[in-house]
Specification:
Shape of chain B: globular
Helix content of chain C: 10-25%
Number of strands of chain C: 22
Largest interface: A-C, 58 and 56 residues
Strand order of the largest sheet of chain B: 4-11-9-6
Strand content of chain B: 35-45%
Chains: A alpha+beta, B mainly beta, C alpha+beta
Distance between the termini of chain B: 32 Å
Oligomer: heterotrimer
Number of helices of chain B: 1
Structural class of chain C: alpha+beta
Radius of gyration of chain B: 16 Å
Number of domains of chain C: 2
CATH topology of the largest domain in chain B: OB fold (Dihydrolipoamide Acetyltransferase, E2P)
Largest sheet of chain B: 4 strands, antiparallel
């Protein structure tokens, strides 16, 4: 089975080897209401016997298999049917505020974002720290949150060559998304600032401190030019 | 031939195509016929004449511990475990017996020098087949 | 109990991986060659998924501070117990005070790069989020969430003299289930969502050329060098879940295969995914060696997984018959 191609208005279902299946809503948007429907779809799909975990991404969903199902077509049909039927799941959570030091040594790629967008550092800081960002999904590394709602004017493509290591607390922009690293590691995103926060503790249940439904606000602590 | 051994050999061979197994010991020959209906094995044993009384050879012989494929070298390696002339310790593997995915060692019963391997690498052998001659220390 | 004698070995405690924690951004980790790890456990009569030590850098040396049975699988590293040479893919008894030395992986009939040291009952470290695998990014799981260091001590869950037979081995799957093209190890790949975004020439080159495992390859990802892969059109993608085996192609056109410690999500275009049944083949391919990819179908990929499972099941059946023979048979 090859990826069932979208006509542009239908979700695309594709394979991740025999380990998982990827369900992507059409287009390039990252709408909040769509994300709430993805949460609802995940909750339903997790009850299916073939599914080990339903993992939301940005307006998409990965279903990891307990065992690869013999008949892919059946689960594909079931998934599309469920998508048509789900209502947005209104997960409500807490508002968490993070103080951010923008620019300087903790924001090594601020200049690249300025060059790409044509905006000044102050304009970028204002547009980045303005919104209340809903947590769409967790992924990438333990405790990391994918956030929705970034101002499209500060969107900057992922770097051609990923950086070998950026520290935990790095505040970055990748394409039209923003996020905060929960631990040191490689990244292809553009780091514009840094914050201090503990996002993950494996001894806790749940181990991640944030979850879909929570909201993040970046507070400007300092701007280093 | 013990019932335990017959049961063990039957279990090992249950997924193979082998329907008839002949086992030859020094003074006994056993036929194991595995029934197609999975009803186990039918056994026939008979004694054969003892070998003529000639001088007992000075070497000790290692016999095969099972049916299987006799190997001179480990499949992952390119050189033989113990070619003729090798000085070996007691318990050292001198050859291997492959039974499906399993590899069993044919070990030196005592320290000595390998005098020779009687069976070529890759030969299917039966239980008790003489495999390796060893000159004890 | 074993004591690590080697410095900077990059060895980690792994099992078959951590599942069910993707929702928190926690990837699977686990053995790069899960078949070898499982086989070592089978030889000891352990649960297949018991934790073991994955050794990627050699030489590697440990001292046994207790009597314990152990198994060695993966790469054949001309191992020795004190001065006695050991056979690969084999199970042994160690006595207190003995030193196990793994040398460099031998060329032999299978070029592999990682060895697995399994202990009776499994390596006894706490399970975190359901697994004993080491989660390096985040520093948890395995032994204190990090690579092993000189002086570290690891316990076996069932130390002491074994009641069961040791001194036998298994034929490794690299030889029992060979897969090669033109003498080069091969892995089957299922096309992924962005497969058709690549030019026809690029797709053809992907299947027909050799890919070299560069020195920038590790448990996070294998960076391959070969034909430049060109997208017919570029797309800025939304972050989405991925799995080990996913082949991403960042701008620059050189593919990266996500491996066991990879991030569980990403946003680069995906050409295809190495199937789960063949990921161990890639995990064992040494730095500097070459591999090939084979286009496969869903049905073939599922059959391949069943084949590796059947190999393990049959191995366990034969080993169990062997273990229950009278104990004390040495070597």
């Amino acid at each position: 089975m090859t990826a069932s191609q979208a006509t542009g208005s239908e979700p695309v279902i594709s394979l991740l080897g025999t380990s998982a299946l990827l369900f992507e809503t059409p287009g390039h948007e990252m709408a909040f209401r769509t994300q709430q429907r993805i949460w609802a779809l995940a909750r339903e799909a997790e009850s299916w016997p073939e599914v080990r975990e339903a993992v939301p991404g940005m307006n998409n969903l990965m279903l990891s298999f307990v065992r690869p199902p013999r008949r892919l077509h059946q689960i594909e049909t079931r998934l599309r049917g469920a998508w048509d039927a789900v209502e947005p799941l209104p997960l409500a959570g807490r508002v968490i505020e993070l103080p951010v030091v923008y620019g300087g040594a903790g924001g090594p790629h601020m200049a690249d974002v300025m060059a790409h967008t044509g905006l000044s550092m102050d304009e970028i800081v204002e547009r980045h720290s303005g919104p209340l960002y809903p947590v769409y999904a967790l992924g990438s590394h333990p405790g990391y949150c994918y956030l929705g709602g970034m101002d499209a004017r500060i969107a900057t493509p992922r770097r051609k060559v990923p950086v070998v290591s950026i520290p935990g607390g790095a505040v970055s922009i990748g394409g039209a998304q923003t996020g905060v690293s929960a631990s040191a590691g490689p990244s292809g995103w553009n780091t514009i600032g840094s914050t201090a926060m503990h996002f993950f503790d494996p001894a806790q249940d749940p181990p991640a401190l944030l979850q879909p439904g929570d909201m993040l606000r970046f507070r400007v602590e300092k701007v280093i030019r | 031939m013990s019932i335990d051994l017959v049961q063990q050999l039957s279990a090992w061979l249950v997924d193979t195509d082998i329907g008839l197994l002949e086992l030859r010991g020094p003074d006994r020959q056993v036929q194991l016929r595995l029934r197609n209906d999975g009803g186990g094995a039918a056994i026939r044993q008979e004694s054969v004449a003892a070998p003529s009384a000639s001088a007992r050879p000075p070497t000790s012989v290692m016999n095969s511990p099972s049916v299987g494929v006799f190997l001179h070298r480990h499949p992952m390696r390119e050189s033989a475990l113990a070619p003729a002339g090798t000085r070996v310790r007691e318990g050292q593997p001198l050859g291997l017996l492959q039974v499906g995915a399993l590899l069993l060692p044919v070990c030196a019963q005592q320290a000595g020098t390998v005098a020779g391997l009687r069976v070529a690498h890759g030969t299917v052998v039966g239980y008790g087949t003489p495999l390796i001659d060893l000159d004890p220390l | 109990m074993i004591e690590i004698l080697s410095a900077s070995a990059l060895a980690t405690v792994q099992d078959l991986g951590r599942s069910g924690a993707l929702r928190w951004g926690v990837g699977t980790s686990g053995a790069m060659d899960p078949l070898a790890l499982a086989a070592g456990n089978v030889l000891l009569g352990n649960d297949e998924g018991a934790a073991a030590v994955e050794v990627p850098v050699f030489p590697f040396q440990v001292r046994f501070t207790d009597d314990v049975s152990f198994a060695l699988t993966g790469a054949d590293c001309a191992a020795r117990l004190d001065d006695v040479p050991l056979l690969p893919w084999w199970v042994f008894d160690a006595r207190v005070g003995q030193v196990l030395t793994l040398g460099l992986p031998q060329a032999g009939t299978w070029r592999a790069s990682r060895a697995y040291l399994c202990l009776a009952g499994g390596v006894d470290v706490p399970a975190v989020l359901g697994s004993r695998s080491t989660q390096l990014r985040g520093d948890f799981g395995g032994h204190e969430g990090r690579a092993l260091r000189q002086g570290d001590q690891l316990r076996a869950a069932t130390p002491g003299r074994s009641a069961f037979a040791t001194g036998f081995g298994l034929l490794p799957p690299a030889l029992a289930l060979p897969l090669q093209i033109d003498g080069v190890p091969a892995m089957r790949v299922l096309p992924a969502a962005e497969y058709m975004h690549y030019t026809e020439a690029s797709r053809a080159a992907f299947w027909s050329s050799d890919w070299k495992i560069t020195a920038q390859s590790d448990r996070y990802g294998y960076r391959l060098a070969g034909a430049a892969l060109e997208a017919a059109h570029t797309v800025e993608m939304r972050s989405h879940g991925i799995v080990p085996g996913v082949i991403q192609v960042p701008p620059g056109g050189q593919p990266i295969v996500q491996m066991r410690d990879a991030q569980p999500s990403g946003g680069y275009p995906k050409l295809g995914t190495v199937i789960e049944a063949d990921l161990w083949r890639l995990g064992q391919a040494p730095i500097g060696s070459r591999v090939r990819f084979i286009e496969t179908t869903w049905d073939e990929a599922v059959a391949a997984l069943e084949q590796t499972q059947a190999w393990l099941t049959e191995s366990r059946r034969l080993v169990e018959l062997c273990r229950r023979q009278r104990s004390g048979r040495s070597s």
